[in-house]
């Protein structure tokens, strides 16, 4: 997976509106020094160091002492009255949502800058103060930043000197024309626009990485379930390699719902891709039938043990799975280990593409799977420790078909009928709960009619991977 993203932010007039507090400190300092500072002019383009701001109004030998006094007055006069700029918290949260680090790099005196960050609860990993212009480049390089966000032309200079993307906001005194002339890569009205910019930027980077990876592979056989991830991988492979260098392989077994098979074949056919449907016999593996916490290991092992020789026979260089970046950090995933052990590649994971990004890209590409609900194999519905058998898989599938029919007019999206051994638990979208008594009775009758002796509707609603809660 790509390295963790690091985004740097300026502080004054980027994250916080420093002007009110700055004006108040200038007024107190001016009264002490007997100097009538032009406050409005001095706060029109905040960002440069204090000595540069004081230079036109004080004797050279008085500037250093005035700066020290300004910083001493600052905590009592500037912190509580300084607000965060619109979108600041959301911008930082956007970095966190992508698993990134936030580095604040500012020309402000670091202890005072820290007071602002703490007072406004601005989430960050590192603060570096008293650095200005190209001096910021050393910090950005050291921390591995990919983007620096600021409001001033000197913030642009720092980003460019570091060799990172410069993103500028128009909340300071610099105009769009000034920022663009300085060489910034993007200009936003405010930080409120940053989350969308970051989403688009990272998606573009990761799609480019995916394409480059697939091109380098030459040819691939995609382990294809028909779900959103493997469908997207199949489409991306066709884009990168051409349909002649790509095939899909779907393992047919008792654990693959019949309802998934035709739509998957139709999608692949629309891409001009051949679909191979070998029989997999995971049910014959003792570890799979025993249904311990590592059941997925045996299932994926069977799939790859079947597909690897097929790929060789058809002259495909690699078998590729639809594992994404979220899967790689989702905790206990024994199936991923089985695939890695058998040499399967995971281009989506390696490009850093998350589930949300895969859906966003699928939608942009016009793929009908962009909003397809997650559809794990039928064995995932059977409680750990309860033996997986064709009978149990069959009745789960029948029960889900029957429940969907019973709730056909309710806008049902997510559904799982969980086989708990002695009874079934029905999980549906939480927004549909509670069901009225007549509808609830109809759902339970449908489940019992599919082969379960007892059934309940889970009051907590659908939860992906809820069987793992017992682990």
In words, what does this structure look like?
The two termini are about 25 Å apart. Strand 4 (about 145-150), helix 8 (about 155-160) and strand 5 (about 165-170) form a beta-alpha-beta unit. The protein has four domains: about 5-15 and about 85-200, HAD superfamily/HAD-like (Rossmann fold, 3-Layer(aba) Sandwich); about 20-80, Putative phosphatase, domain 2 (DNA polymerase, domain 1, Orthogonal Bundle); about 220-370, HUPs (Rossmann fold), CATH 3.40.50; about 380-470, GMP Synthetase, Chain A, domain 3. The chain contains 20 helices and 13 strands. The strands form three sheets. The protein has a six-stranded parallel beta sheet with strand order 3-2-1-4-5-6, sandwiched between helices. Strands 9-8-7-10 form a four-stranded parallel beta sheet, with helices on both faces. About 45% of the residues lie in helices and about 10% in strands. Helix 1 crosses helix 4 and helix 7 (about 135-140) crosses helix 8 (about 155-160). With about 475 residues, it is α/β, with parallel strands linked by helices. The mean pLDDT is about 95. This is Hydrolase. InterPro entries: HAD-like_sf, HAD_sf, LarE, Ni-pincer_cofactor_biosynth, PGP-like_dom2, Rossmann-like_a/b/a_fold. Pfam families: HAD.
Key terms for this structure?
4 domains; Rossmann fold; four-stranded parallel β-sheet; sulfurtransferase activity; LarE; 20 helices; DNA polymerase, domain 1; single chain; Hydrolase; six-stranded parallel β-sheet
């Amino acid at each position: 997976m790509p390295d963790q993203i690091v985004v740097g932010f300026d502080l004054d007039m980027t994250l916080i509106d420093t002007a009110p507090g700055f004006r108040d400190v200038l007024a107190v300092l001016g009264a002490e020094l007997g100097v009538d500072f032009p406050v409005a002019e001095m706060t029109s383009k905040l960002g440069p160091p204090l000595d540069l701001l004081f230079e036109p109004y004080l004797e050279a030998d008085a500037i250093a002492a005035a700066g020290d006094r300004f910083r001493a007055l600052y905590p009592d006069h500037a912190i509580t009255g300084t607000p965060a700029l619109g979108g600041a918290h959301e911008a930082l949260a956007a970095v966190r949502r992508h698993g990134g680090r936030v580095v604040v790099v500012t020309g402000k005196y670091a202890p005072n800058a820290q007071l602002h960050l703490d007072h406004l609860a601005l989430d960050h990993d590192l603060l570096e103060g008293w650095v200005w212009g190209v001096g910021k480049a050393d910090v950005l390089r050291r921390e591995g930043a990919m983007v620096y966000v600021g409001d001033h032309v000197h913030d642009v200079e720092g980003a460019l000197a570091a060799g990172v993307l410069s993103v500028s906001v128009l909340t300071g005194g610099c105009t769009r024309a000034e920022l663009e002339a300085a060489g910034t890569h993007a200009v936003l009205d405010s930080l409120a626009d940053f989350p969308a910019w970051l989403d688009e930027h990272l998606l573009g980077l990761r799609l480019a990485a995916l394409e480059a990876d697939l091109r380098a592979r030459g040819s691939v056989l995609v382990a294809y379930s028909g779900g959103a991830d493997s469908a997207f991988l199949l489409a991306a492979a066709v884009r990168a390699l051409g349909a002649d260098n790509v095939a899909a392989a779907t393992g047919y077994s008792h654990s693959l719902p019949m309802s998934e098979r035709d739509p998957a074949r139709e999608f692949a056919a629309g891409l001009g891709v051949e679909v191979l449907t070998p029989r997999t016999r995971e049910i014959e593996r003792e570890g799979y039938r025993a249904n311990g916490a590592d059941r997925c290991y045996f299932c994926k092992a069977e799939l790859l043990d079947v597909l690897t020789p097929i790929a060789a026979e058809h002259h495909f260089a690699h078998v590729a799975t639809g594992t994404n970046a979220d899967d790689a950090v989702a905790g206990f995933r024994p199936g991923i280990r089985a695939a890695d052990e058998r040499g399967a590649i995971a281009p989506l994971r390696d490009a850093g593409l998350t589930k949300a990004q895969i859906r966003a890209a699928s939608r942009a590409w016009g793929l009908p799977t962009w909003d397809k609900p997650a559809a794990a194999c039928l064995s995932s519905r059977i409680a750990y420790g309860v033996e997986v058998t064709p009978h149990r898989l069959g009745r789960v599938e029948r029960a889900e078909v029957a429940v969907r029919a019973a709730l056909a007019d309710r806008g049902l999206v997510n559904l799982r009928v969980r086989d708990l051994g002695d009874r079934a638990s029905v999980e549906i979208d939480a927004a549909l709960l509670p069901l009225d008594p007549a509808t609830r009775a109809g759902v339970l009758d449908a489940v019992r009619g599919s082969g379960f002796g007892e059934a309940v509707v889970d009051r907590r609603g659908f939860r992906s991977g809820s069987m793992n809660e017992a682990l």
